[in-house]
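ASSEMBLY PREDICTION REQUEST
Request ID: AP-0331
Submitted by: J.K., bench scientist
Number of chains: two
Total residues: 258
Priority: normal
Notes: Please return the full assembly, not individual chains.
Input sequences:
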Amino acid sequence: MRTARIVCPKTAKRGEIVEIKTLINHPMETGYRRDDMGQAIRRDIFKTLAVTYNGVEVFRSEMFPGTAANPFVAFTTVATETGTLEFTWTDEKGVSHVEKVQITVA
Amino acid sequence: MPASITRRKLMAGSAALVATVALPRAPSASPDALAAILKSILGDKTAGVGRVKLEIPELAENGNSVPLTITVESLMTATDHVKVIYILSPENPSPDVARFHLGPRSGKAKVSASVRLATSQRLMVLAVMADGSAWTTGQDVIVTMSACIDSG
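STATUS: Completed
Returned structure:
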């Protein structure tokens, strides 16, 4: 079960640059570690975070084992219009976690 | 008289032993791996030094999660903007750490994230702009507790 936290202003002025912070729980297992029995622990990471604003991609992050567990990323976007920001995290098996946030632009 | 074991010899021997049986660690990326990635990004071009700012603690107690902020000088207009920011590590098992794709709708080129550092190193950031130019910076980070090596 994934729990994502997104910090994004609910309202913004048109043209304002807003900062968005995201955090999601995930071990981001590197594949380099071994368990107590000496067996390699299988790699398990989120590969991408794609962010769309009313359907148009405005930010994308590609992640590798060098990205810390519970990946955090903060970025900016221009508040262009009232609508929905959709955040999609996808792991190596293609499994996605989606979150949506509304923003009202005046 | 048998060879005496002096304290000095014992200490030296112990240190050597510790050095050889130290925790198994993942191999760091070969310089070739980083060079190959740079080649795939830049082709035959070279990256200029500047325009990119990397803020990261000089001393990281825990390499498992090191916060950083990257800013790139750019107007972020339709014609003049940052396309991709690469975080590259010369000492991690894999040089790729993260890549961020931006565009004019970003408003400004500023990204924060948290990364794993296998050991002390000079972390590298590379920004590729819309006009094809590339800019880079590096920052030395001392890691006291490394990531990627502990088992269990």
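REVIEWER COMMENTS: Residues 83 and 103 of chain A are 6 Å apart (CA to CA).
SIGN-OFF: pending second reviewer
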